[in-house]
Amino acid sequence: MLDAAKYNLSTVVNQNQFLDAVDLEVRSIVGRTLVAKRALVPGESVLVEQPLLQYFLQPSCRSSLSPYYTKAMWKQLNKYVVELDQDQSSPFVPGLPAATLAYLQIDPPPLRQRIKRTPSVDHADLDFFYYPNLDMDHPTVQLIVGYCRNVTCEIALFQHVEAEQLATFLLKIYGNAHTVALDRQSLARKGCATTHSAKKHRRSTTYADRYQSAPWPPSPLGPRPSIALMTWGSKFTHSCSPNLLLHFDNASNTMTFTVTRPVTAGEVLTFSYLPENDDLGGLICGTTRDRRRKLNQFKFFDCGCDRCNAKDINGRCNCSTCDSDAVTSFNGLSGAWQCDRCGSTELPEFLLLDKGEAYASSMVTALATKLRDPDQAGEVVTMIEPYLMEDLIPTLPRTHWTFGYAQGLLAWYHLDLLPSTFGTGLASQLNATSSGLREASVFLNDYLHDALWSSNPLPVFMASWMVLSPVIQAVTRGTEEKQYRVQEKVLRQRSDSDDSSSDEDEAPEAPELLAPLVLPMPEEWQKDVLAIHHTVMNLWLPTVNAVFQQPPALIADRIRQIQQWSLRIQESMAL
Ligand SMILES: C[S@@+](CC[C@H](N)C(=O)[O-])C[C@H]1O[C@@H](n2cnc3c(N)ncnc32)[C@H](O)[C@@H]1O
Question: Which residues, in sequence order, are bridge partners of residue 178?
Answer without folding.
Answer: 228
